[in-house]
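Structure representation:
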Amino acid sequence: MQEKPHGRFLKTAVLVTFFVLFVYLLKNFNIFDAEGLLTDLHVMGDARFVKLLFVGVATVLLIFFVPVSTVAATAGLLFELDGILLITVSGLFSALLSYGLAKIFKSDASRWVEKIYRRKEREIPLEELYEKIKEHGFSYALFVRALPFMPFQVGNLLFGVSSVTLWDYMTTTFITVTIGQGITVFLVSMAADFMAQKTGTVIGLLLKGLYYFGIYYIMRKNTRTEEKEELPL
């Protein structure tokens, strides 16, 4: 089926916008040094809109594949516990934009996700992953989103080309970013002043350990459930 003219125009407009934005960031900022860039913003001191600027820059960095844990750690160093709100908002904005881009460029995004996903040997084939998301919806999307081996931006595009609903997608993103990366912000903000925050640092480490244990538990539970379902009657 031939693509409609307005569809081609929309894709061209989006591509040009992101290309111009990328060139601008590359020319005026060292976007590959995410921590340095975000720290430069903080040097502005108590400027009225510094947190708003941080959210905007962090959102763009996450879209351009900067690891969410790096942005979260920087938020913890610069804004301490306020960084939990900042990384949550940045994560939600970038996730929403990436989801929209994946819908607009669905065929291209599908090929890209497939290429990245199959670089390594995975226990779950990509086709099976899509099928499980379609079958289980929110619960499996939450499980996939929490997996530490799934880069944030890759997950955004993967969900964008899957059958998951926008509500389930944004809800799972909110939960995992707020809890998972919120713990990172808490841990880094405590560890930055370790001598005065020894107890807080230990609590942060315990929370991080419990978070990953929870992911492992859910993974094992899903595996056992699938094995039971495959047993012959």
User: Anything to note?
Assistant: The chain has a mean pLDDT of 78. Residues 31-230 form one domain. The CA atoms of residues 175 and 190 lie 22 Å apart.
